[in-house]
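Quick one, tokens below:
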């Protein structure tokens, strides 16, 4: 999974910068795209870490009434 996401970033990053630079005419805008992508990655990393530390959220099964004999 890590390699898959890394490969996507390696392909989409330069393409995204190229599209942004073509549309805005400013190389700085392309770099701001990378800054924003990195910020999203940092937030996602800490959010995933928090979810892992919290553990699974499992609802207890409802208690079944005792069988009447």
């Amino acid at each position: 999974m890590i390699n898959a996401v890394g490969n996507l970033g390696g392909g989409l990053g330069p393409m995204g910068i190229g599209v942004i630079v073509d549309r805005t005419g400013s190389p700085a805008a392309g770099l701001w795209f990378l800054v924003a992508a990195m910020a999203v990655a940092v937030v996602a990393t800490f959010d995933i870490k928090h979810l892992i530390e919290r553990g699974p959220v499992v609802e207890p099964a409802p208690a079944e009434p005792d069988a009447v004999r």
